[in-house]
Write a structure and sequence with these properties.
Number of helices: 3
Number of strands: 0
Shape: rod-shaped
Distance between the termini: 115 Å
Helix content: over 70%
Structural class: mainly alpha
Order of helices and strands: HHH
Radius of gyration: 41 Å
Largest sheet: none
Strand content: under 5%
Length: 113
């Protein structure tokens, strides 16, 4: 009978909506854990937003760099597609490297700063 009484009390409590008494310390710990989790999620969200903004700035810089490199690549392609490679090499040797023909005389203006 004792076992039947206990089962009836549980059913009756369940039907009437009675709640068990909870431990206040456990309840406090659960609430603190929930608040800590919400704070962690908020900080994680803010950190992710900041990282996303940094990555977007980096993407813009890389796109600009890619555009510059594409223009430079087009210039190189134009140089390579020229039929007269000797003229190009001669121009680079004279303008960039400062070479001259054996009988050529060059005059430099030394009065300028």
């Amino acid at each position: 009978m004792n076992e039947a009484n206990r089962i009836d009390k549980k059913r009756r409590a369940k039907l009437l909506g009675e709640k068990k008494k909870s431990n206040p310390v456990l309840s406090l710990i659960m609430h603190l854990a929930a608040v800590a989790f919400v704070i962690y999620c908020a900080m994680s969200f803010i950190g992710t937003k900041a990282e996303t903004a940094d990555r977007r700035h980096e993407l813009v810089a890389l796109n600009e760099q890619a555009a510059v490199l594409e223009v430079e690549n087009e210039e190189y392609q134009a140089i390579l597609s020229e039929d007269d490679e000797r003229a190009y090499m001669e121009r680079i040797a004279i303008d960039t490297l400062g070479y001259a023909y054996p009988n050529e005389r060059r005059f430099y203006d030394t009065t300028r700063n």
